[in-house]
Design a protein that fits this description.
Largest sheet: 7 strands, mixed
Radius of gyration: 24 Å
Oligomer: single chain
CATH topology of one domain: Rossmann fold
C-alpha cells in the first residue's frame, strides 16, 4: 500500500530533527517457498522525547519493523527497500560493528518473552552487569541493584542474586525492562513490555517510562496489541495491518475518530475500551452488550442457584530455602473462601503473586492444600481416592495461559485433542475421530487443522485447540488460567465470545484467573479480588466495578489502561 493510500491525522510541523524516521520501509524473508514480503512501504517518525506506539494484531509486521530499526532481523530477513534514519544516519544497511556501537547507549530494547530472553544459568544481577559493562557503565553491585529497583523490583540487592526460574513471569519481565533501561538510551524499543504484567505493575512500569521520557528526553517506540494502552500512553499511534501502515496520527484523535475499517475493529475489540463502553452505556441507559461487539448480542445467562464449587478456608504454605539447610514458610493462599454457581463465570483477579493461580491449581487437584476444603458437587476433593481423582479430571478441565507451551509440539492437532479421550478409554477410533471433528467445529477451526502441528498455527488458533481439548471430556467446570492474556485484542475478543457461546450452549461453569480487569468486566458474573494471598473483596461484577469497597480494588480499577480515555462520539 502506498503512502498516499494511508489515513494520516496531521500533527503539524516542527523544526527539530526526528530521532528516528522510517521511510517506505520494505522487509522480506527468504523461505523454502520463496521470498515473502512481511512489511511494505512502512513509515513513521519519532521526535526526541516522544512516545510512538505501533499497534496491530499478530503478524501485522509491527515487531518486524522494530527489529529492523535495531538491526536484529533474523538471518533470513532483510531490508528490501526504504530507509531507517537514526538521528539523520541511514542505518538500514549498517554494519554489525556499527549496530553494536548503537545498541545499548543509543537504542535500547525490551523484548516480549522473558523466558527466552533471559539466560537460565546466569543470575539476574550478572545479566544486568553484563549490559552495563558492555556499554562502559559502572557495574558494581550497587549500580546493578539501582537499575533493578528503577524497574520496580523490590529488595533489588537480594533479587540480583537469584536466577530467572526463581522469579515470577512479571518479575522476569521487569528484569528485562531493567536491562533495556540500564544505559539510559536515547531511543527505547519496547516490544509488548507489559504483556506479562498485572495492571498495577503495568502502570508502574509505564509511569517509569514516561518519567524517563520527560527527564532524560528518551524516545519510546512502543509495540503493543492493546489500542487502549497505546492511546493512553503514546503521543502518536501507528496502526499496521498485514505489513502495511493503514492509519497514523495523534493517539486520542485516532481513538475517537478511526478512519480505516481495521482501526475501527481494533477500537471495538479493545477490552479496556469495552469496559469503559459498559460504564457509559449504563449511564445513558443503553444496552451495554450491544457495544461490546458491534452487531452481535451476548446471550443472557440463566440464573443459577446451585453451588458447583465451594472453597472453604483454603490455605497453602510453601517451604522456601533460607540457606544452609534452613527453610522459611511462605503463605501463598491465606484462608480464602468463596462459592461458584453452576453455569456462571467467577473471576479471580489480583497482581502477580496474589495467590490466584495457586488457588486454581488446588481446585484442579494439582496442589494439595495446607488447610481448608474444596467441595466439588458436594464432595470434598481432598478425600478422593486415585480412581475418583481420575473421574474428577473428566469433570474439571484446565485451559492454561500459554498456547505455545501447553501443546506438545510433537503431536498433531488430532492427537492433541484425541488424547484425553484415549486416556479415559472413551469410544473407539472411529467415534473419537468423529468427536474431534465436532470439537473443531465447536471452536470454529476447519477440520483440515487435524493434520497440522502447533508450530503451523497462530496463537489464537492454538488457544482454540486448547479449548477444544478441554471440552473433549464434556467437563462441567473449566479453569481458565490467564487463558486469553497471550492473545492480541481481535483474537482475544473472538476467544471470549467463543467461551461465552459455549457456556450458553453447554451450561459450562468457568473459574477465570486473570490480572486483566478489563476482560473481567466483559465476561464475569462474580469477582473475587486477591491481594498477597488473601481474599480482600468479593461480589457481583457490577458491584465490584461500580462501588469497590477496598483501596486495593480501586487501585486495580484505576490502573486499567485506556479506561479513562474519551470514547468515539458514536459510542459516548
Amino acid at each position: 500500500m502506498a503512502t498516499s493510500d494511508v489515513t494520516i491525522h496531521e500533527t503539524g510541523t516542527t523544526a527539530d530533527r526526528p530521532l528516528l524516521e522510517i521511510r517506505d520501509l520494505a522487509i522480506s524473508f527468504t523461505t523454502g517457498s520463496g521470498e515473502v514480503q512481511a512489511v511494505r512501504n512502512a513509515h513513521l517518525t519519532i521526535m526526541p522525547g516522544e512516545t510512538v506506539a505501533i499497534v496491530g494484531e499478530s503478524g501485522s509486521g509491527k515487531s518486524t519493523t522494530a527489529l529492523a530499526a535495531i538491526g536484529l532481523l533474523p538471518g533470513n530477513g532483510r531490508v528490501a527497500g526504504g530507509q531507517i534514519l537514526l538521528d539523520g544516519e541511514d542505518i538500514s544497511h549498517a554494519s554489525e560493528k556499527r549496530m553494536i556501537e548503537l545498541r545499548g547507549n543509543i537504542i535500547g530494547m525490551v523484548p516480549q518473552d522473558p523466558m527466552s530472553n533471559l539466560n537460565p544459568v546466569w543470575k539476574i544481577g550478572d545479566q544486568v552487569k553484563e549490559t552495563l559493562k558492555a556499554n562502559g557503565r559502572p557495574s558494581g553491585p550497587d549500580d546493578v541493584a539501582k537499575v533493578l529497583a528503577q524497574a520496580g523490583l523490590p529488595d533489588a540487592a537480594r533479587r540480583a542474586k537469584q536466577y530467572p526460574h526463581e522469579f515470577s513471569g512479571g518479575m522476569r519481565q521487569r528484569a528485562l525492562i531493567a536491562i533495556g533501561l540500564s544505559c539510559q538510551p536515547r531511543l527505547l524499543i519496547a516490544d509488548e513490555p507489559t504483556s506479562a504484567l498485572d495492571v498495577t505493575v503495568q502502570r508502574q512500569i509505564l509511569d517509569h517510562l514516561e518519567k524517563m521520557t520527560s527527564e532524560l528526553g528518551t524516545s519510546v517506540l512502543l509495540i503493543t496489541h492493546d489500542l487502549g494502552l497505546a492511546a493512553e500512553r503514546a503521543d502518536k499511534v501507528v496502526v499496521m495491518y498485514r505489513g502495511n501502515v493503514v492509519e497514523a496520527g495523534p493517539s486520542l484523535e485516532l481513538l475517537q475518530n478511526p478512519q480505516h475499517p481495521y482501526t475501527q475493529r481494533l477500537v471495538a475489540s479493545a477490552p479496556s475500551l469495552a469496559s469503559r463502553r459498559i460504564q457509559v452505556a449504563k449511564e445513558h441507559g443503553v444496552a451495554s452488550n450491544e457495544l461490546l461487539v458491534p452487531g452481535e448480542g451476548v446471550a443472557a445467562k440463566p440464573v443459577m442457584t446451585e453451588d458447583v464449587l465451594q472453597i472453604q478456608n483454603l490455605s497453602k504454605v510453601f517451604k522456601l530455602r533460607a540457606g544452609f539447610g534452613k527453610s522459611t514458610d511462605f503463605t501463598a493462599v491465606d484462608d480464602v473462601s468463596f462459592n461458584v454457581k453452576r453455569g456462571t463465570t467467577t473471576a479471580i483477579v489480583g497482581e502477580s503473586g496474589s495467590g490466584k493461580s495457586t488457588v486454581a491449581q488446588m481446585v484442579l487437584n494439582l496442589l494439595e492444600p495446607t488447610s481448608g476444603k474444596i467441595i466439588f458437587d458436594g464432595v470434598d476433593t481432598s478425600a478422593l481416592k486415585p480412581k475418583e481423582i481420575f473421574a474428577f479430571r473428566r469433570r474439571v478441565q484446565p485451559i492454561f495461559q500459554d498456547p505455545y507451551g501447553s501443546l506438545d509440539p510433537m503431536y498433531n492437532i488430532y492427537r492433541t485433542i484425541e488424547e484425553p479421550l484415549r486416556v479415559h478409554k472413551i469410544g473407539d477410533k472411529a467415534s473419537r475421530e468423529k468427536k474431534v471433528r465436532e470439537l473443531l467445529d465447536q471452536v470454529s477451526l476447519p477440520q483440515s487443522t487435524m493434520q497440522r502441528y502447533p508450530n503451523e498455527l497462530s496463537g489464537g488458533q492454538r488457544q482454540r485447540v486448547a479449548i477444544a481439548r478441554a471440552l473433549a471430556l464434556d467437563p462441567e467446570v473449566i479453569i481458565c488460567d490467564e487463558a486469553v492474556s497471550a492473545l492480541d485484542v481481535l483474537v482475544q475478543a473472538q476467544v471470549l465470545n467463543l467461551l461465552a457461546e459455549l457456556q450458553s450452549r453447554l451450561g459450562l461453569t468457568y473459574l477465570f484467573i486473570t490480572h486483566d480487569l478489563a476482560v473481567v468486566r466483559q465476561i464475569a458474573d462474580h469477582v473475587c479480588v486477591m491481594e498477597k494471598g488473601k481474599l480482600v473483596e468479593t461480589g457481583s461484577t457490577d458491584e465490584v466495578f461500580e462501588a469497590p469497597q477496598k483501596d486495593y480494588t480501586k487501585a486495580l480499577l484505576n490502573a486499567i489502561p485506556g479506561a479513562r480515555l474519551m470514547l468515539p462520539p458514536e459510542v459516548a
